Amino acid sequence: MSGNPKELNLCGLVAVQARYERDPASIKRLFFDEPTSRKVGVICKALAAARKVYRCVPPAELEKIAGSIHHGGIVAVIDAPKLKAPDARVVAGWAAKRTPLLLLDRIGNSHNLGALARTAAFFGVENIIIPAHPQAALPGEAAFRVSEGGLEQVEVWRTPDLPRLMRELAATGYDVAGAAARGGRPVAAAGPAKPLALVLGNEEHGLAPDVERACTRLVTIAGSGRVESLNVSVAGAVLLHALLLNR
Known about the structure:
This protein is α/β, with parallel strands linked by helices. It has helices at about 15-20, 35, 40-50, 60-65, 90-95, 110-120, 140-145, 160-170, 210-215, 230-245, and strands at about 5-10, 30, 55, 75-80, 100-105, 125-130, 155-160, 175-180, 185, 195-200, 215-220. The strands form 2 sheets. Strands 7-6-5-10-8-11-9 form a 7-stranded parallel beta sheet, with helices on both faces. A 4-stranded mixed beta sheet has the order 1-4-2-3, with helices on both faces. Strand 5, helix 6 and strand 6 (about 125-130) form a beta-alpha-beta unit. The longest helix has 14 residues, at about 230-245.
């Protein structure tokens, strides 16, 4: 992990290439092992032109730079993302464009956050909203690695009051659909012809009571009953596919 808390290590070739394609100037330093060196010539050329550090290093040094054995042969150092809170103007813009949204209520596992960002990007959902809550995972190094470039395709927002934001979305015409392990409408049932804001709850506790009350409806994935529920990242994929397909 970077010694500078304002910096973030991007690990893995897919994640680094996705960042370079979106914002090449944001890469501050680049380190890679010998096998990966044959795949990053274009990036190195750009860094050389910008007089930035790039270097092929031994595996042990790369592991030290990454702070993890899960570096995938390459580490790009970037500035840590600064998350904004969506204001009334942003909400109105989303509603006007019928922008689909993914809201995450205290998703605590960084790997789940990364997997959900990858899923959101796959389905064309470009905005993820998380609460300013100590349990909520932030888009850090593990999330970027697991997202396989997905976090480069979405914008992550951080709201101080998730239930209030959900009520504002509902007031502008959103279908604020909360995922429930049981008791919700079958996900296959057609929903209202409104823009979608899907809300996923914490891995262990589900939706917080105030978050659940702010939903306009609850949806449940029907299963065999042999296990209680799906992993939240898998549930998110099933729900996004089904709910967006209905629109």
